[in-house]
From TrEMBL:
Highest taxon above the source species: Bacteria
UniProt-recorded name of the protein: Acyltransferase family protein
Annotated TM spans: 9-28, 34-54, 74-91, 111-129, 136-155, 167-184, 196-217, 229-247, 259-278, 290-307
Membrane topology: Multi-pass membrane protein
Subcellular localization(s) per the UniProt record: Cell membrane
Domain Acyltransferase per the UniProt entry, residue ranges: 5-307
UniProt cross-references to InterPro entries, sorted A to Z: Acyl_transf_3_dom
Keyword entries, A-Z: Acyltransferase, Cell membrane, Membrane, Transferase, Transmembrane, Transmembrane helix
Keyword Cell division among record annotations: no
Keyword Translocase: no
Gene Ontology molecular function: any one: acyltransferase activity
């Protein structure tokens, strides 16, 4: 399958924004940290969109959507979930923080691994609906799940309710992967390019209006603002723009292709180390925490590169290739 360097470039960018999202900004958490994280929340749905796009690419080479189409993806994702959960489970056990719970089987043993479980569920769900000839309900299911996502995270105040967000957050992979599949069917690159920039700019404007609305209605609501309509529009716009960018392979595209997953999986390990070392060498304030994403991303990419080039079996194992 031909590489899309624009998508790989945006993978590189999105992986950095994941670190921004997962940083605890200390005294700045409720001020600068809120808006730093808000600016980064497009990254997770962007990766779901990528997965959907490339799933559709594989489907175009098959006459039918059999389990063989997703088998390698599902096996790889299960392996990634097992390996990463084992590593985090051991570390948290040593730290005295780990207690096994049944949901860990699906969402992993650390806070960010839900993404992997969500991908597994989405691939199997989409395959199953095709297998039983119910694929026609996918657009309606996607609308329903996105509606639940936006309602439970932000708009439930309209009904004076507090709906559970966790279920819809976990299931958001289904609609975003489906959208990625639909985008793959657009063959005119000019249409994608125009739509991409308009969608991206429109999403930013919409998000600004959402934040103003939420701050007006309920001043603290933006502190738990995880997946709004504007964020989702930005993710779709960024994905469309990435498809329309025609660039040669370079450092950023190579690292985006090869190491964005490794960065997502293991940057929390660096953050654990930072939380111990930073107070020793730097004053404990919010501005020192601003170094976390920059230093963390540089280090995690360096570690990934060294393992990939000098210890390939270790790198493969950490990425779920356990054969």
């Amino acid at each position: 399958m031909q590489r899309l360097n624009g998508v790989d470039l945006f993978r590189f960018i999105a992986a950095f924004f994941i670190l921004i999202l997962h940083t605890n900004y200390g005294p700045l958490e409720d001020t600068l940290g809120v808006y730093a994280k808000l600016s980064a929340r497009w990254a997770v749905p962007f990766f779901f969109l990528c997965s959907g796009y490339f799933l559709q690419k594989k489907l175009e080479k098959s006459e039918h959507f059999t389990f063989d189409v997703i088998q390698k993806n599902v096996i790889s994702l299960i392996s990634i979930l097992l390996v990463s959960s084992l590593i985090y489970g051991i570390i948290d056990t040593i730290r005295g923080n780990y207690e096994f719970q049944i949901p860990h089987v699906l969402v992993g043993a650390y806070f960010h691994l839900w993404y992997i479980g969500a991908m597994i569920l989405a691939f199997i769900t989409i395959w199953y609906l095709h297998e039983v000839k119910l694929q026609f309900i996918l657009p309606y299911l996607s609308i329903l799940l996105l509606g639940g996502l936006f309602l439970s995270d932000n708009y439930d105040f309209l009904f004076q309710k507090d709906y559970s967000f966790e279920v819809y957050r976990f299931m958001q992979a289904i609609p975003f992967i489906y959208i990625g599949m639909r985008v793959c069917k657009i063959k005119t690159i000019d249409h994608i390019k125009t739509a991409g920039w308009l969608t991206l700019i429109g999403g930013i404007v919409f998000l600004i209006l959402e934040v103003k609305l939420f701050k007006w209605v309920m001043p603290l609501l933006d502190l738990v603002h995880e997946q709004s309509i504007g964020i989702s529009i930005i993710a779709i716009g960024a994905f469309l723009v990435s498809l329309s960018i025609d660039i040669d392979t370079n450092f950023f595209t190579k690292f985006g292709q090869k190491y964005s997953l490794f960065s997502y999986l293991y940057h929390p390990l660096l953050y654990m180390g930072f939380s111990v070392l930073f107070p020793i060498f730097l004053p404990e304030n919010g501005f020192s925490k601003l170094l976390y994403p920059i230093l963390g991303y540089s280090l995690i990419l360096g570690i990934a590169y060294v393992l990939d080039t000098k210890a390939k079996p270790v790198f493969n194992f950490l990425n779920g290739k356990i054969k």
